[in-house]
Amino acid sequence: MLAELPVRERAPLTGYAREAFGQRWSDDVEIGLGHNGCDTRNDILARDLIRVEFRPGTRDCVVESGLLNDYYTGTQIDFVRGAATSNAVQVDHIVALADAWMKGAQDLDPELRRAFANDPDNLLAVSGPINQEKGAADAATWLPPNPDFRCEYVKRQITVKHRYHLWVTPAEHDALAAQLSACH
């Protein structure tokens, strides 16, 4: 799939806004976990955490707490919902929305952008501080600190970019290819 991704320079971030990708954590997308009564964020937390506790009365939808085996850091992180604690675990867009915007998403129709933003293949519960460190970086400038997850990480980036007909920069292509060559 990497060979099928167009290689171009990034477009400007002009016109980018989070809202261009639709309602945050929608439940109404056709791909993945949509239409189950839970928003995508809670779906991903329920998928990626262990020992999950749900808020009573939410039909096992709203995740109150759990334990994350964080792929990005290789550590365990307690998740407890709350204003002072929820940021310890965040749901990351493996292909960041701003990165996608500069590499073709600005040309996608709004429905496809919303599907991209809520695609479970592009979402992963991770360490909040590491997610903030990553920001909108691509594989040329950021890889997870946990080397055991890097192969899976770049494979997911390639899969998602391929699915949504996005492109990669020359440096990103080279970084993805180098990481793939190191995979076993």
Automatic annotation (TrEMBL):
Residues 39-178 form the GmrSD restriction endonucleases C-terminal domain. InterPro entries: GmrSD_C (IPR011089). Keywords: Endonuclease, Hydrolase, Nuclease. One of its GO terms (molecular function) is endonuclease activity. Pfam families: GmrSD_C. It comes from the Bacteria. The keyword Methyltransferase does not apply. The keyword Hydrolase applies. This is HNH endonuclease. It comes from Corynebacterium meridianum. The lineage of its organism: Bacteria, Bacillati, Actinomycetota, Actinomycetes, Mycobacteriales.
